[in-house]
Amino acid sequence: MATLLPALVTGLVLASSPAIRYSSAFRAETFVRTPGLAERADRSVLEDVVLTPRGQAILYTPRLEVKAILEPQFMLRRTLSQPTLEVLTFFFLRGEYQLRRGLKVWAMESATYGTFPFEDFRVPAPVSGGGDRLLDANRYIYAETMAGVDVTGIRRTYIGAYVAYVINGLLDPPTTIRTRSETDRVTPAQYSVELRAQAFHSLTRRFVLGLHLYGRDVDFSTGARLTQLQSTQVTQYQFHPLVQGKLELGVAVGERLPQRDEFSGLKPFLLQPMGDVSLTVPVPVGYHWPVQAKLSARYVPYISPFTTIVYPRREQAVALEWKGRRQAQVNLEMALAQSATRGFHEPDGEERVTLKFQWPLTRTSAVVASGRLLRLREFLISDDPLYKWFAGVGLVIRQENGRL
Questions:
Q1: CB atoms inside a 10 Å sphere around CB 372
Q2: Local structure of 11: helix, strand or coil
Q3: Rounded to an integer, what is the distance from CA 81 to the centroid of its chain?
C-alpha cells in the first residue's frame, strides 16, 4: 500500500496535466526551373537552393488542443549566376475547445509572409502622380483568420461553419491592370470575407448526403469587387471499401463590379451552375492494390488572377497515389482546364503534370523529389502558350518527441 499510493498520485498528476508533443524537421532541396512570369533572366534554365527548417508543437488537455507551426523558408535564387536571397515565413496557430460532448469551437491564424528583392528583374509599380517606379523589393502576404464551430453530437450527422478574413497578394499591389507587358505581370491583391457552412448526414454506412453553402465578398486592389454565394448539394457513396464516389451539384450567384472601361460591357450579375464529380478506385498493381486513382471533373466559377473577371471553367484531373511503409509515397497528377466562356478569356486554359516522390532512408530521414510541367494559355499575357517547369531533389530530416 505504501508503494501503491505514490504511484497513484503520480498517475493522477500526469492525467490532469497537459500533454505536449513537439517535432522538428529540416528540408534541403535544389531545383532547376524556368524563369517566373515577372522575372527577367539571361538564361532559359535557372537553379535554386531552398532550405526549410520547421518546428511544431501540440498541447493536449481533455478539452483543449493547441497546435503551433513555424516554418521559415530560405530560397537562394539563381544560385550559380546571381545569388538572390528570398525569405518566406509560414506561421500557423490553431486552438479548439470542446464545450461539451459533440460541440467544439475553434479558431485559427495562418500567415505566409515574405520579402522579395527583385534586383535585375525589377517590377514596375504605379505611383499616384503617374508613371512607374521600380521596386527593389516587395512584400507578399497570404493570411487567413478563421473562427468556427463543429457539431457532431447529432446521431450520424455533422454540422460545421466558420467565418474568415483572407488577405492574398503584395502589400504594395498594383492598382491598375496592364497586360501584354513583359515587365509587369504582378497580379492584383485580394481582400475577402468568407463564410462557409456545411452539413452531412449518413443515411447508411455507405451513403452520405450533404449541403454546402459558401459565400465571399472580395475586394481587389484594382478597384474591382466580387460578391458571390454558392449552394451545393453533396452525395457520397461507398461502392466498396476501396471504391468511393462523390457528386456535387449546385449554383453560384453574385455580382461583380468592373474596374476597366473595356470590361464594362460584361454583365455584373452572375448566375452559373456548378458541378463536381469524382471517383476513387484502386489500381490493380500487385496483390494488395496499394495504388489509389482519383478521377475528377469540375465545372466551377473561376477568378482570373490577372483581370479579376469571373468566368466558368471546366477542369479534369487524374491523380495516382501510392503509400508504402515508413511514409514512403509517390503522387502523380495530370490535370487540364479550359474556359467555358466567350470574350477575353475564351482561349485560356492550362495543362499540368505534377510528380512527387518520397522514400525513407532511415527512421528519421527521407529523400524527396518533385517536378511539374505547366502549359499555360493566357491570352492577355501571350498569344502563344507559355511552358513552365521545375524539377528538384532534396533531403528531409525529422525528429519527434513528447507524450500523448
A1: 16
A2: helix
A3: 31
User: How far apart are alpha carbons 289 and 140 in whole angstroms?
Assistant: 43
> Are 282 and 293 within 8 A, CB to CB?
yes
Q: What is this structure's pTM?
A: 0.85
pLDDT in tens, 135-168: 555 788 999 999 999 999 888 999 999 999 999 9
Could you give the 3-state DSSP secondary structure of residue 247?
strand
Residues 6+ apart with CB under 8 A from 169: 140, 141, 142, 187, 188, 189, 190, 221
Residue type, 226: L
- At 36-59, the pLDDT tens digits run 877 766 778 889 999 999 999 999
User: Residue length, the chain?
Assistant: 404
Three cell numbers at 394?
532534396
| Assigned C-alpha cell, 289 | 492494390
**Rounded distance, CA 364 to CA 366, Å?**
7
- Domains annotated on the chain, with CATH: 19-175+185-401 (2.40.160.50)
Alpha-carbon gap, residue 312 to 360, rounded angstroms: 42
DSSP code, position 78: T
Residues 6+ apart with CB under 8 A from 379: 344, 345, 346, 347, 348
33 half-sphere exposure, CB direction, 13 A CA radius: 23
Cell of 50: 531552398
Cell numbers at 197, concatenated? 457552412
In the chain, count H helices and then E strands.
1, 20
Smallest Cα–Cα separation from 319: which of 303, 302, 336? 336
Nearest to 321 by CA among 309, 329, 312: 329
Closest to 235 measured CA to CA, from 259, 198, 200, 270: 200
